[in-house]
Known about the structure:
Chain A is α+β, with helices and mostly antiparallel strands. Chain A has helices spanning 9-20, 37-54, 70-75, 78-81, 96-107, 131-136, 181-200, 217-229, 257-262, 286-297, 306-311; strands spanning 24-26, 33-35, 60-61, 67-69, 88-92, 116-123, 146-156, 169-179, 207-210, 233-238, 246-253, 265-266, 275-276, 278-285. Chain A is globular and about 70 Å long. Chain B has helices spanning 3-17, 40-54, 71-80.
Amino acid sequence: MAELQAGTPEESAFLAELIDARMLIGSGVPGLLGRGERFERIRAAVDALITRAGADEEPERMAFPPLIPRRQLEQIGYLKSFPHLAGSVFSFEGDEAAAAEQERKASLHQDWSEHQSQTDLVLTPAACYPVYPAIAARGPLPPEGVVVDAGGAYVFRHEPSGDPARLQMFHQREMVRIGAPEAVLDWRARWRDRAVELLRSIGLDARFDVANDPFFGRSGRMLARSQRAQELKFEVLVPIASPQPTAVASFNYHQEHFAEVHGLTIAASDGQPASAAHTACLGFGLERISLALLRAHGLELDRWPAEVRERLELT
Amino acid sequence: MSDATVIEQIRNVIAEHARLPGEAADLPAGASLYEAGMTSHASVSVMLALEDAFDVEFPDRMLTREVFESIDAIAAALSELAVGSSA
């Protein structure tokens, strides 16, 4: 079982305050939290703010469940990079005697995993993953590529923590750009700057920085440094309750990685030969942005600054 | 182990693990492997395969992009770990 990352006193106090105010609903498992009605109003308002910010690109909207085929996780090498964060779905397989034995152990809260078999499903670790095979299935892309808005899908990360800003399941509002390298890089840079502006407009002290993914082990340290050296990942950070500002959005350039795995290509045109597509994605952590707003403006929504309420269309 | 043998073994590891589109045998020792098409993930495979081939462990400070940039850079790192003619 992954080790619990205990919250700092500030983080724990903020979590207690949010549960007390019925913004969040505890489950007894760290990082597994329900949300009250007022928290959901904020989260929906942030989601809508992002939709408005991206409307000019007329993205194609898609929505996916928080599960992807196990095979896809295997293909993209997720278990090489992040074996510690993945969650797979197992289900019972056996006869009546095995079912009875499983139930007996479960009722005593003992280990009943031996009666479980792996299914062909895993929990979605990043909301953009289902987009790449969906687009690849259409065949070569037009020269201008595509922009997809994958909505605010639930994603899973197995990292139990006492910090309310580190949930095991949360909403990642993702958008994906697939196209020629320059177009993809421009799009990512534009959105990074737009995100800083957007978050500042709702009263958050946002800035961006070069970042790396939490790759696993020694190989992971090399991948993380390589990712930083090439500036493949940026994060936008805002203060919540942690000693350091928390990442609330990330802007990732995957080069040809997903194109190679899924066979994403740009069709030949105007004398240009067909080429491998490049991809980038961006993700806003909706719960984290909502928490940052609560931390910055307080738990009483009607006392938030008028311009913030107006920008979020919170009436 | 002579320097020439070290270089040859590095070339073998690259041929097998760097997933380069071209022939690793033709690559000048000073040429950038990344420019030749080695991805970050492939560079990790190269690093692990070098550890196996030379029975060494790269210390944390060497787990960077630059150390695996070229055949020469890899040879220099290995010689720092006392692999080669001085060993």
